[in-house]
Amino acid sequence: MTTPYLLGVDLAQRSDFTAIALLERGAQANSVFGGTTPTWDVTALDRTQHTSYEVICDRVARLMGSDKLRPKRIAPGGRWRTVAQTTLVVDSTGVGGPVVDMLRRRGLSPVEVLITGGVDPVEMSHTSWRVPKRDIVLAVQLAMENRALRVAEGLPHAETLKQELQDFRYKLDPITAHDSYGAWRVGQHDDLVLAVALPLWYAPNQPVGATFGNYLRDPEPESEWHPDSIYHEDHPRNPYRQG
Description:
The protein has helices at residues 53-64, 96-105, 133-145, 158-167, 191-202, and strands at 5-10, 17-29, 36-49, 72-74, 81-83, 86-91, 111-116, 122-125, 128-132, 149-151, 169-172, 179-182. 23% of the residues lie in helices and 29% in strands. By secondary structure, the chain is α/β, with parallel strands linked by helices. It starts with a strand and ends in a 41-residue tail after the last helix. The longest helix has 13 residues, at 133-145. The strands form three sheets. Strands 8-9-7-6-1-2-3-10 form an eight-stranded mixed beta sheet, sandwiched between helices.
């Protein structure tokens, strides 16, 4: 199963902005093919400048460990099982590589995306990708065209994100035929757009059954029987109960 939440982190040099965006999965009716197609609501945004990477990692770890985003423990068939609720997707371009390692040392399992100028995405491992910026930006454009991306009203930085979405554009050099993406004006930021675009791109590439997300360590063993199961040692109808 894919996770209902995706947390995107666009890391930057300390003089620039680092952005964090939380996306919540939904669904809408598909009028052409029938059934439903995914939608994404941006339900949290954060943006920081001149902040150490240690502090940023602590902030991400607290978010991933919150009641809403941390894994849930369920007991299908009578056995406890941990199910991830959130997938963390981090830009590992530039300074991102060492910061991804810092996140892992905090018990997280981020999916790292190295943004390149290549042609096709390359899966380096189940938690590591090399992805052309073209593909990441097109994921945002496609979501907007399909009305599949919504920004919750009243969020801090929501208006900044909406402005970045409007200003972001595709450019094709008529001489070199090279494509590039950027803001309309020099000096304008695109950090919030990329924090949203990273999980948008990753969502359809997320492996079925993915469980990486955050703190999977738990003091109780995975094999422990749920108290409601008849196989629990204290259940009166446990066929193996002693006495």
